[in-house]
Automatic annotation (TrEMBL):
Assigned EC number: 4.2.2.23
Pfam families: CBM-like, fn3_3, Rhamnogal_lyase
Protein name: rhamnogalacturonan endolyase
UniProt cross-references to InterPro entries, sorted A to Z: Carb-bd-like_fold (IPR013784), Gal_mutarotase_sf_dom (IPR011013), Galactose-bd-like_sf (IPR008979), GH-type_carb-bd (IPR014718), Polysacch_Lyase_4 (IPR051850), RG-lyase_II (IPR029413), RG-lyase_III (IPR029411), Rhamnogal_lyase (IPR010325)
GO molecular function: carbohydrate binding; rhamnogalacturonan endolyase activity
Primary localisation category: secreted
Source organism of this protein record: Aristolochia fimbriata (White veined hardy Dutchman's pipe vine)
Lineage of the organism: Eukaryota, Viridiplantae, Streptophyta, Embryophyta, Tracheophyta
């Protein structure tokens, strides 16, 4: 089909963009997508939903110390940014007015939509801005959401393995379901599709790490149309590569999450002080539309969408965005180097940091990139030699961060780097010295910032999502916190070093114990190990924590009632337990204790989660290592 010109039609309450393939109808001046015509469907969006909530930007925020607020981002000023036969870009802007201080969102928002000739889809981005007279603000979440035709879109896909027919929206409401302990979780008792009866439905089961996602969507039936969200870059999303975000959920709803606090807690909310100026471009993301006339080719829509995502990534940063705040490739710079690990207890030589994640972020504290939400982040993985190149970096001053599989802790280069337009900054060789004070006496797990290497039980037969049966992501099943009590009904977990296998004998999350009255009590795990000869000096216990949710964590050595050598109250708020994660906010605890606490022969380290009350309190271990005292001749 020959490319048709892009046409912009202005009506009293709407603006219509069309390129002969796609037609967008957008409310004016509000900027809500009310209609998407494509592939033989007059509207892909849910016509049973109010127009302002079909395709929309929204935000969760509060004033410091105030209650949480939700705002549907509505424009008050409409303008055409650019319009010709090849492209149309339209703006829907709302400007903060100081006269409304304390009553409305202290943020100016410019929402944009772009339609290009010959392109089967459209782009959207937004410019968020604060001026020096804005009051304080806490920005918790912002996103672009689409609610699709409920009678058409039933099949979702987020990876090659995670694809399924989804429930109808009425299925997750009583009386067709039973509400479970987690507010977002329901048991489908009488769904419209009987094949789904007895399964659990929960939007958090479809979460993805930023580094692993970037494409998700739905396929309709009759006609067969794919509706896909594509992230060509993650630079504008908060929380770095390991941040987990929602993707799709029953509705049918598809999300483009830009900022959020899920799986990290409120620490990663963007907090602005009184008078703090700020600007950030969120996006653009691409909404890709494809179709086929044959049901036998419906799965090919997913395959085609994967190819399109790769194409969008090669085009980043886009050269057709007109905002001066979105920088083109020639306005950006790059960074290169090579990362090594220096751990003399592993190797006397420097170790190339293979498959390490290394990135640039504004924050200057080790590991704080996890909760960085104001600025941009740029991340890549090193090759087998530890070499890396980070391209298309927005000029500015950054810290170099990283983490390396197989080693604990967070890398942070002490020297800040300045990225300049059109210049590759060459760092040369970098060296990461992971935390260590002595030789390894024993270890549990593998340090990869998750609890994936431990024992994950099968779900209770009453609470299954068939998508995760025999899946490497079986931890996504509902209610696994209660399986701990099922497996250890009378006493807590005891793990014997050198005998037990972490993949079979170490429960993947340290949770509370279910009691007979449906209460939940604290738990203490035992690690038993033998020492042939106690060396005088200081021993160190490294505990890499993959996630924690309001845990009261204590460590004791050989005396379960003695004074703890580590005592951390109310640790973490990432709720990875309730939201079916395998990691959250990573932390490293280093616990030192004197050799006088150890004895020749059998010793026990007691790990206590001392807080009871509900099933969502606890923590995930990534890796545990006991180090002996360093010999005088050792570094």
């Amino acid at each position: 089909m020959a490319k048709q010109n892009v046409v912009v039609t202005i009506q009293t309450s709407y603006v219509i963009l069309s390129n002969g393939i796609v037609k967008l109808t957008i409310s004016k001046p509000g900027g809500a997508l009310t209609g998407i015509q494509y592939g033989g469907l007059d509207n892909l969006l849910d016509i049973k939903t109010t127009e302002s909530q079909r395709g929309y930007w929204d935000i969760n925020w509060n004033l410091p110390g105030g209650q949480d607020r939700y705002t549907l981002l509505q424009g008050t000023e409409f303008s055409i940014v650019q319009a010709n036969k090849d492209i149309a870009e339209v703006s829907f802007r709302s400007s903060w007015d100081s006269s409304s201080r304390g009553t409305v969102l202290p943020l100016s928002v410019d929402k944009r939509f772009i339609l290009r000739s010959g392109i089967s889809g459209f782009y959207s981005y937004a410019i968020y801005e604060r001026t020096a007279n804005c009051p304080a603000l806490v920005l918790s979440q912002t996103r672009l959401a689409f609610k699709l035709r409920r009678e058409k879109f039933h099949y979702m896909a987020i990876t090659d393995e995670k694809q399924r027919i989804m429930p109808m929206p009425e299925d997750i409401l009583p009386p067709r379901c039973q509400e479970l302990a987690l507010p977002e979780s329901v048991l489908l008792t009488n769904p419209t599709n009987p094949d789904l009866k007895g399964q659990v439905e929960d939007k958090y089961q479809y979460s993805m790490d930023n580094k692993d996602g970037g494409l998700h969507g739905w396929i309709s039936s009759g006609p067969f149309v794919g509706f896909w969200i594509i992230f060509p870059s993650n630079e504008f999303r908060n929380g770095g590569p390991t941040k987990q975000n929602l993707t799709v959920h029953t509705g049918p709803t598809v999300l483009a999450m830009f900022h959020g606090v899920h799986y990290l807690g409120e620490d990663c909310a963007a907090s602005f002080t009184e008078g703090e100026a700020w600007r950030k471009v969120l996006g653009p993301i691409f909404v890709y539309l494809n179709s086929t006339s044959s049901v036998s080719n419906a799965h090919d829509l997913w395959i085609d969408a994967k190819k399109q995502r790769l194409s969008e990534m090669t085009q980043w940063p886009y050269n057709f965005v007109s905002s001066p705040f979105f920088l083109s490739e020639k306005e950006r710079g790059s960074l290169s180097g090579r990362l090594f690990v220096a751990d003399s207890y592993v190797s006397k030589n420097l170790i190339p940091a293979k498959n390490a994640h290394i990135g640039l972020a504004p924050t200057t504290s080790a590991g704080a990139w996890q909760i960085e939400s104001k600025g941009y982040q740029f991340w890549v993985q090193t090759d087998s030699n530890g070499d890396f190149v980070i391209n298309n970096v927005v000029p500015g001053v950054y810290a170099v961060h990283g983490f390396v599989p197989g080693f604990v802790g967070d890398y942070l280069d002490k020297t800040l780097v300045t990225i300049h337009q059109g210049i590759e900054t060459q760092l040369g060789n970098l060296s990461y010295n992971p935390p260590r004070d002595g030789p390894t006496l024993w270890e549990i797990g593998y340090p990869d910032r998750t609890a994936i290497g431990y024992y994950v039980p099968d779900a209770h037969p009453l609470y299954i999502n068939k998508l995760f049966v025999n899946s490497p992501e079986k931890y996504r099943q509902y209610g696994l916190w209660d399986r701990y009590t099922d497996i250890h009904p009378k006493s807590d977990q005891v793990f014997m070093i050198g005998v037990d296998d972490p993949k079979k004998d170490w429960f993947f999350m340290h949770v509370t114990r279910r009691t007979t009255n449906r209460g939940y009590s604290p738990t203490t795990w035992n690690i038993k190990f033998n020492i042939d000869e106690v060396t005088s000096g200081i021993y160190n216990l490294r505990l890499a924590i993959a996630a924690s949710n309001h845990a009261w964590f204590q460590v004791r050595v050989n005396n379960p009632n003695g004074a703890p050598v580590c005592d951390v109250f109310d640790m973490g708020s990432d709720n990875a337990i309730g939201r079916h994660g395998i990691h959250g906010l990573y932390q490293l605890l280093s616990v030192s204790f004197n050799s006088s606490l150890l004895v020749k022969g059998e010793n026990i380290i007691f790990l206590t989660q001392a807080r009871g009350g509900n099933e969502f309190l606890g923590l995930f271990y990534d890796y545990i290592r006991l180090e002996g005292p360093a010999a005088a001749s050792e570094p």
